[in-house]
From TrEMBL:
InterPro entries: Helicase_ATP-bd, Helicase_C-like, P-loop_NTPase, SEC_C_motif, SecA, SecA_CS, SecA_DEAD, SecA_motor_DEAD. Residues 80-260 form the Helicase ATP-binding domain. Residues 1-582 form the SecA family profile domain. It is found in: Cell membrane; Cytoplasm; Membrane. The gene is secA. The keyword ATP-binding applies. Its cofactor is Zn(2+). Pfam families: P-loop_SecA, SEC-C, SecA_DEAD, SecA_PP_bind, SecA_SW. Part of the Sec protein translocase complex. Interacts with the SecYEG preprotein conducting channel. Has a central role in coupling the hydrolysis of ATP to the transfer of proteins into and across the cell membrane, serving as an ATP-driven molecular motor driving the stepwise translocation of polypeptide chains across the membrane. It catalyses: ATP + H2O + cellular proteinSide 1 = ADP + phosphate + cellular proteinSide 2. GO terms for molecular function: ATP binding; metal ion binding; protein-exporting ATPase activity. This is Protein translocase subunit SecA.
């Protein structure tokens, strides 16, 4: 009743934005009279005014610049999203509602302070595309814009032609520049990895000239749920190879292969493998010694990782073997992550299992989580199509409110009820039948799968039925944008992993609206509702017709791990639509979301201990002019990171002794940090003393007892510095 009378909090927030939108719209005729040269001149006038008072004028000016340069007039709802982003909040905008353009308004307003605005994208392609696409608007407004890619940085400059080796049109108007120059630009596009690693590298640089970043002032994160939630548990690590032999990984991989299923128990929910009593006895016999004695602790670590690699991590799902390397597949986006490795020896164990070259384990030189990196910004904002279901986490971890922005046109997509099957085989059979039915009518279909393995399995089934289709997974990510862009054409069938072209719109081809628009089929429910909603959101953009439906089996990971054991009551191939099952799926997702939230919170609580230490060390290092002391800080900090890692592993066992592992970690971590600070001073004094001694020896080398003393006293050497030496 109260909600009907007063509306919910989100509706009230949107209502309060309407007077500001009216003010922006009133200013539109004034800026239509501007000549092109007037846009850049406005900067000096605007810089003298506070940003809140200036907002309507700045937004109206950007709207006019967008109309003149890229022939797009930002809608009122995009203006609303821009205001939300300027205030340091998250704007939830449905797919196709124009997030890229909405970010330009707050980027312009905040760039007026000359502190730099960072716009974070999920991949290099989108960083280049958005800098190039929005570049003409910034250029007319008198702002510089650049983008960071993994190997190279680019600045937007009209009429720049791409290099001969860069044939793609997306490189047009992009001039190669250094990373340092890129960070000096008013607006900079780039991935979360590039910004994070640059921060770590800057704090390892030996001089200020080697650093690239400015102060971290304001960031807008595109696909904010993907970066701040899905990737939050992944730490950024800069490492160097360790000298330890890799032979043990091969030996324990062979050992793990000799074990049977009765020798160990798998906990898929917590991703652990534990030996049974039978398995323990078998391992001791194979090795000829007790693995769990204190002196053999490193062998138990190798066994644990070999078991996890064998039982929990699957090729073409968790990783792919490409060019003789095991490359991780992002579980949320389905993208390959070259260069990123599982820590703690797990990656080496996977390499040994797959029979590829086992690369050396590495020592961590610097590390930070995305959670702590993005909390370094003075102001943070984000946008995505799916944030509302994670509003609690955004609030508790990042102090970010989520505001759901209304769509420009009413959403008319039909979200059909889930269909549940007993087995995966029955489910896939039904999916093929559904695709055949719609394919005959020419309706475009996008099929979302949770892994490369399932993606390729479905592709094989479609080939058997002679259904022409395109495949999009981590193995073919280079063609991602082109494949997704064509997914709305008449008769198109696209089979994609969860990556499903985030950031790339699917526009409907001619005559497709009359056929019902794009139809999206989900082949499995994901553990996060956001990912399901993201897949659904590929259809029905900007008021287009469209539909979506999920096909689920009781053998799917989500149902197998968390769902009830209902197999016995279901027929093999007949679909079931029952509220009880739908509720079980919803409960399972909510349970997993809560569990993953707790995991990320847990990670943050531990990382906060290291984060305070990292801030202190990095500040000390920046203020230190002596190169020698900086080197000592680097070496001792690297050792400290390893020690803290070991401490974190060891305190978990203290829970069995009724001690809180986190409190123990904080207490012992504090002691270790005090030792680190003392050691830095002791080692610096010691090395300085050694250097003085060496300098002295060099200076007085070969001087005879009766020669004049090199110190300049006028005395003979034997009566002066010889005794001091």
């Amino acid at each position: 009743m109260l909600k009907k009378l007063f509306g919910d909090a989100n509706s009230r927030y949107i209502k309060k934005l309407e007077p500001i939108i009216k003010e922006i719209n009133k200013l539109e005729p004034e800026f239509e009279r501007f000549s092109d040269s007037d846009f850049a001149k406005a900067i000096k006038k605007f810089q003298a005014v506070s940003s809140e008072f200036l907002l309507p004028q700045a937004f109206a000016l950007v709207r006019e610049a967008a109309k003149r340069t890229i022939n797009q007039r930002p809608f009122d709802v995009q203006m609303m999203a821009g205001i939300v982003l300027h205030r340091g909040e998250i704007a939830e905008m449905k797919t196709g509602e124009g997030k890229t353009l909405a970010a330009v308004m707050p980027a312009y307003l905040n760039a007026l302070s000359n502190k730099g605005v960072h716009i974070i994208t999920v991949n290099d392609y989108l960083a280049r595309r958005d800098a190039n696409w929005m570049g003409p608007i910034y250029h007319l407004l008198g702002l510089s814009v650049a983008c960071l890619n993994h190997e190279q940085a680019f600045k937007f400059e009209p009429q720049t032609k791409p290099d001969q080796d860069e044939t793609s049109i997306e490189y047009e108007n992009l001039k190669k520049i250094s990373r340092r120059e890129a960070y000096q630009c008013n607006v900079l596009y780039g991935t979360n990895n590039e910004f994070g690693f640059d921060y770590l590298r800057d704090n390892m640089a030996q001089s200020a000239e080697q650093t690239v970043q400015r102060d971290l002032d304001y960031a807008i994160i595109d696909e904010v749920d993907s970066i701040l939630i899905d990737e939050a548990r992944t730490p950024l690590i800069i490492s160097a190879p360790d000298a330890e032999s890799t032979q043990l990984y091969d030996q324990f991989a062979k050992l793990a292969e000799r074990l049977d299923s009765q020798d160990y128990q798998i906990d898929e929910k917590h991703k652990t493998v534990v030996l049974t009593a039978v398995g323990t006895e078998k391992i001791i016999k194979m090795l000829g010694f007790d693995l769990w004695q204190q002196s053999n602790i490193k062998y138990s670590h190798h066994l644990e990782q070999a078991l996890r690699a064998m039982a929990l991590f699957k090729a073409d799902k968790d990783y792919v073997i490409k060019d003789g390397e095991a490359i991780i597949v992002d579980e949320f986006t389905g993208r390959l992550m070259p260069g990123r490795r599982y820590s703690g020896g797990l990656h080496q164990a996977i390499e040994a299992k797959e029979g590829v070259v086992v690369q050396q384990e590495s020592r961590t030189l610097a590390t930070i989580t995305f959670q702590n990196y993005f909390r370094l910004y003075q102001k943070l904002a984000g946008m995505t199509g799916t944030a509302a279901t994670s509003a609690e986490e955004f609030d508790k971890v990042y102090s970010l409110d989520v505001v759901v922005i209304p769509t420009n046109k009413p959403m008319i997509r039909q979200d059909l009820e889930d269909i549940i099957y007993k087995t995966e085989q029955g489910k896939f059979k039904a999916i093929i039948t559904e695709i055949q039915k719609r394919y005959k009518n020419g309706q475009p279909i996008l099929v979302g799968t949770v892994s490369i393995e399932k993606n390729e399995k479905l592709s094989q089934l479609l080939k058997k039925e002679n259904i022409l289709h395109r495949v999009l997974n981590a193995k073919y990510h280079e063609q991602e944008a082109q494949i997704i862009a064509k997914a709305g054409e008449k008769g198109a069938v696209t089979v994609a992993t969860n990556m499903a072209g985030r950031g790339v719109d699917i526009k409907l081809g001619q005559g497709v609206k009359e056929l019902g628009g794009l139809h999206v089929i989900g082949t499995e429910r994901h553990e996060a509702r956001r990912i399901d909603n993201q897949l659904r959101g590929r259809a029905g953009r900007q008021g287009d017709s469209g539909s979506s439906q999920f096909f689920v089996s009781l053998e799917d990971d989500l149902m197998r791990i968390f769902g009830p054991k209902l197999k016995a009551v279901f027929p093999e191939d007949e679909p079931i639509k029952h509220k009880f099952i739908s509720q079980a799926i919803a409960r399972s997702q909510a349970q997993l979301e809560g569990y993953n939230f707790d995991l990320r919170k847990h990670l943050l609580e531990y990382d906060d201990v290291l984060n305070k230490q990292r801030s202190t060390i990095y500040k000390m290092r920046r203020q230190e002019k002596n190169i020698l002391k900086r080197r000592i800080i680097d070496l001792l900090w690297m050792e400290h990171l390893e020690t803290m890692d070991y401490l974190r592993d060891s305190v978990r066992l203290r829970a069995y002794g009724q001690q809180d592992p986190l409190i123990e970690y904080k207490k012992e971590g504090y002691k270790l940090f005090q030792d680190l600070l003392n050691n830095i001073e002791i080692q610096t004094k010691s090395v300085k003393k050694q250097i003085k001694q060496i300098e002295h020896e060099i200076k007085f080398k070969g001087v005879g007892r009766n020669d004049p003393c090199p110190c300049g006293s006028g005395k003979k050497y034997k009566k002066c510095c010889l005794n001091k030496k």
